[in-house]
Amino acid sequence: MQRLYGLSTSTIAFLAAAFILVVAASGCGQDSSVTELTGPQTYGGHYAGGTATGDTDEGAAFARWVMDQDPQHRYLTGAVVRGDQTLGVKVQPTITKGELHDLLVSLTQGMARTFPGQPIKVIAFYQSGDKLAEANLDPRTGQISVG
User: Do 28 and 131 contact (CB within 8 A), yes or no?
Assistant: First the structure.
């Protein structure tokens, strides 16, 4: 089984699906994290039938990697990276709670490997832009909380 960023192919596929669901939901909402993620993008844009952007070149590259994990867009429709520590993903409405949980955990782990030593936040959004769920990594303990 091929591995990328220490994740199995099946884990990456699942994470990508969850990521799509999150990005799909990031369009609008009252949560401040939505405003934080929808601001001007310096790098990236339309990519592989979705959107992959970041406010740094490294962030945009990670967003593209996330979208590459779900080329059929079964789970994800877009990815945004802010400050190299926050990832927002729009997810498809068909994603299950279990798939979303696994996707958030996997994306958080992948982002922590790409941007080590800092707090990581991965936020999933409905296609409407409303916040669906969030995962946070504490870099001191390595613990990931999903809520």
Answer: no
